[in-house]
Design a protein that fits this description.
Layout: E1 5-15, E2 21-30, E3 34-38, H1 45-52, E4 60-65, E5 68-69, H2 74-78, E6 81-84, H3 96-106, H4 111-124, H5 140-151, E7 158-162, H6 170-185, E8 189-193, H7 197-203, E9 206-211, E10 214-219, H8 221-227, E11 231-237, H9 243-249, E12 254-257, E13 262-266, H10 270-283, E14 287-293, H11 297-305, H12 326-333
Parallel strand pairs: 3-8, 3-9, 6-7, 7-8
Antiparallel strand pairs: 1-2, 1-4, 4-5, 9-10, 11-13, 11-14, 12-13
Helix pairs in contact: 3-4, 11-12
Bound molecules: adenosine-5'-triphosphate.
Length: 334
């Protein structure tokens, strides 16, 4: 294990079937940093979190949490970690305050200290006003904040956040990001899974992509984005029927096609852009729209997984756009 690794995982294997589960996943998360574990549905993210948080035993491999072997000393690991997921065991009928006090008691805090810890966390998550209301009356955002608050009761030094902001509105997401940033600034190590790649970009120092139970790419967000090229150019022809003909005309470029637009990876040089626009000109195909942007983690995601984008937009937060090539996937994963 590297000296500063809060989480060190080697060759983790958990085969549910011959093709589902985890097959040799390794990762290191440095002390006081955020690692985002990303991948499509069924990739194995939750299985990693469940093994690391000692809920599931792997078939093979090793897991060290804070330097402690999680497989032989799960109790010691449980004392250092917090886990927040959507199935947190809060009692809907109890108030937010009562839930936190109850979990604090489960952490063996004496009654008075349990109340103090509950009040601290209600304050941290801006839930003090709603503290006396039953959880079933909470909005989705308040509920997710409470889930996270519960995971923090024991002052964990290592936190597992499994899709912490799923279903939240943008303001609630940003509020949770701020809380997470604050925890990390105070030295907490976070392993985060999320479907929102902009969330990973905003919070994580390192990113690991997994698919079909295997690591397919890893690096900092900046490294991963730089590997797929200096600029992404989105070209929307005047009609969707013209997407395929334009793609054929641009065969010399690294092009991925969606329903309504083409996405072209080019270098940083202005000459690259000029060359592309000249080729579009030569094709004689009119554009309804175009944009030039730096790559996002969404672009990386579609490149490394080879998955088709569901629709065409260029918004980095919703991951829509175009299909991508196997060759590009291999290049980024290398
Ligand atoms: N207890 C289990 N028994 C059998 N198969 C399982 C079990 N848990 C997970 N799997 C399978 O293992 C694979 C990985 O599941 P996992 O929940 O870890 O993926 P994920 O990346 O978290 O997906 P999602 O984003 O949909 O939550 C899936 O094919 C899933 O069906």
């Amino acid at each position: 294990m590297a000296e500063s690794a809060a989480i060190a995982v080697r060759d983790l294997t958990k085969a549910y079937t011959a093709t589902t589960g985890l097959f040799g996943v390794s990762l290191d998360v440095s002390l006081g940093s955020v690692m985002a574990l990303l991948g499509p549905n069924g990739a194995g993210k939750t299985t990693v979190v469940r093994i690391l948080s000692t809920l599931v035993r792997p078939d093979a491999g090793s897991v060290a949490i804070g330097g402690v072997d999680a497989l032989s000393r799960p109790d010691a690991v449980q004392a250092m970690i917090g886990v927040a997921n959507q199935s947190a065991a809060v009692d809907e009928k109890l108030t937010g305050r009562a839930n936190l006090a109850m979990f604090a008691r489960l952490h063996r805090l004496p009654r008075t200290q349990a109340r103090v810890r509950a009040a601290e966390l209600l304050e941290l998550f801006d839930l003090t006003e709603a503290a006396g209301k039953p959880v079933k009356s909470y909005s989705g955002g308040m509920r997710r904040k409470l889930d996270l608050a519960v995971s923090l009761i024991g002052h964990p030094s290592i936190l597992f956040l499994d899709e912490p902001t799923t279903g939240l509105d943008p303001a609630s997401r940003l509020a949770l990001w701020e809380v997470i940033d604050g925890l990390v600034a105070d030295g907490t190590t976070v392993l985060l899974t999320t479907q929102y790649l902009d969330e990973a970009d905003a919070l994580a120092r390192d990113v690991t992509f997994i698919d079909d139970g295997r690591v397919i790419a890893r690096g900092t967000p900046a490294e991963l984005k730089s590997r797929i090229g200096g600029r992404q150019v989105d070209l929307t022809p005047a009609s969707p029927d013209l997407v395929a003909p334009l793609a054929r005309q641009l065969a010399g470029f690294e092009v991925t096609s969606g329903d309504r637009a083409l996405h072209v990876s080019i270098g940083d040089d202005v000459a690259d852009l000029r060359r592309l626009l000249t080729a579009v000109d030569v094709s004689g195909i009119a554009l309804a729209d175009y944009s030039v942007r730096t790559p996002t983690l969404d672009d990386v995601y579609f490149h490394v997984t080879g998955h088709e984008r569901p629709a065409d937009t260029t918004d980095s937060s919703d991951g829509s756009g175009a299909a991508t090539s196997e060759a590009a996937a291999k290049e980024v994963a290398a």
